[in-house]
Amino acid sequence: MTETVSLDLDAIRVFLHLLGVCGWVGGQFVMMALVPVLRKVSPEAPRLAAARFGRIAWSFFALAVVTGVWSLATVDLAGRASGYHLALLVKLLLVGASGAAAAIHGSTSSVVVRAATGAVAGLAALGALLAGSVMVA
Questions:
Q1: How many Å from the N-terminal Cα to the C-terminal Cα in the chain?
Q2: Which stretches of the chain are DSSP H helices?
Q3: DSSP 79
Q4: Residue 3 lies in a domain
Q5: How many distinct structural domains can be found in the chain?
Q6: Which domain holds residue 28?
Q7: Among residues 93, 74, 78, 79, which one has the least CA distance to residue 132?
Q8: Distance (Å, rounded) from C-alpha 81 to C-alpha 63?
Q9: Please, what's the largest Cα pairwise distance for the chain?
Q10: For the segment 75-122, what is each residue's pLDDT rounded down to a tens digit?
């Protein structure tokens, strides 16, 4: 049996979703790795880099959310097993937690809150990525 492979609207949707996820999840971990180096450059460098990163990261987050909703609109949820529904629920909760924690992280002046919300944002993003992987496996 021969399968055809084509660049169609579904492929573009999946590509854009993966691009958004890569930028959001991967970007958080790149920033986390750079903070100690940036602190050595200047006490202000991490804040300046985070502000610049935030402009790009939120665009990636929006891209992931929009294409995620688009993808969900293509799924026959009634025909899916309960495990899929559970993974979807977990993914949606984790995406929301990641976005909320990142928003708090970017708007607080408390070092403790910034550390905690940064960790929650990154871990929730990883969890959402895992839940998404379970959904397509």
A1: 22
A2: 9-21, 27-41, 45-73, 82-107, 111-136
A3: G
A4: no
A5: 1
A6: 9-136
A7: 93
A8: 27
A9: 61
A10: 999 999 999 999 999 999 999 999 999 999 999 999 999 999 999 999
In this prediction, residue 4 carries a pLDDT of 82
| CA dist., res. 90 & res. 103, Å (int) | 20
Q: Say if 2 falls within a structural domain.
A: no
pLDDT digits (tens, 9 = 90+) for 44-72: 999 999 999 999 999 999 999 999 999 99
Residues near 10 by Cβ (< 8 Å), separated by ≥ 6? 74
Local structure of 6: helix, strand or coil = coil
User: What predicted TM-score, i.e. pTM, was given to this entire model?
Assistant: 0.91
Does residue 15 fall inside a structural domain?
A: yes
Place of tokens 């691009």: 19
128 in a domain, yes or no?
yes
Q: What is the pLDDT of residue 120?
A: 98
